[in-house]
Structure of C4-dicarboxylate transporter/malic acid transport protein:
Amino acid sequence: MGTGIVSILLHNLPYNGDWLYYLSIIVFVLNIILFSTACIISILRYTLYPEIFMLMIKHPVQSMFIGTFPMGLATIINMVVLVCVPAWGEWTRYFAWGLWIFDAVVSVMTALSLPFLLMAHGNERPLSSMTAVWLLPIVSCIVAASSGAIVAGVLPNEQYALWTVIVSYALWGIGLPLAMMVMVIYLLRLTLHKLPPKAVIVSVFLPLGPLAQGGYGAMKLGQCARDIFPQTHTLEESSGATFYTLGFLVALILWSSGLVWLFFASASIAYSRSFPFNIGWWGFTFPLGVFATSTVQMGTELPSRFFNILGTILSVFVVVLWIIVSVGTLKGAISGKLFYAPCLGDLRVAEEDRDAGKAA
């Protein structure tokens, strides 16, 4: 997700150049390699050790990260549309559409099933144990909605494009209201039980994701509605323009709300001062990255030099942050101390109990 959003930011920078375009392609290829490698490793892991899968799916924290799969794939789909469609032509349009359909189905399954499993399995959990990772499976629908708008913009068949937009609005409606509910609970948790431990303090940036991505999606879907509705005679003649205008209004409100969470998150980091590097530092990149994309898109729609400059500054900051976290991850991967699966602790407990039972 973090690498994918960096490739998109480099491609869409308001003040761009040819060298940034080629750099975005390099990061895009790197993202495909990382995504494919992670998929292969995960398939092998749960094929060779199937008992781990059930432990993972029932874990209240680790299971939430399944939502990163469709979101990571969505960044690849977006770059296929932005880079491959202009370069390789017609077949890539439908290839991106097929990938998006798969991504949308997985996003809905993830957003609905994982919160329900959280309700149905395990013991009662105190409010203080809640973290912002609850948002991850839900945000996948919002990301899929934004990606659907990008895909619909290049589909040559008007009816296919129309249905893609309608489904994307439904995905947006599934994800954003549910994410807002979780954010209210998370704000209550922060208020009553103070900031999370330093090891997971980066998670306070995660609420920025659904707000920024929701705003970006509203603008892109409004664009598509403005262009596609008149062509397909959907609703009234002025409906597309209305959707477009309302989309920008919603985006502006969500972007402003994102500023609140950006302040809370930045103040939390400043208050914590020093905190250890861990894999959770990747929680910096995607939320800040989608906030930057939303800012850049607002600058495009208005148009506005303020939003263009601010979007560029945020984008460059995210790229620098991505480099820092990538170097830290590479060092941690080489040392073997970075990766940790919380669910394996439950497996050890189960094995100890089984051994104790045999001994008795």
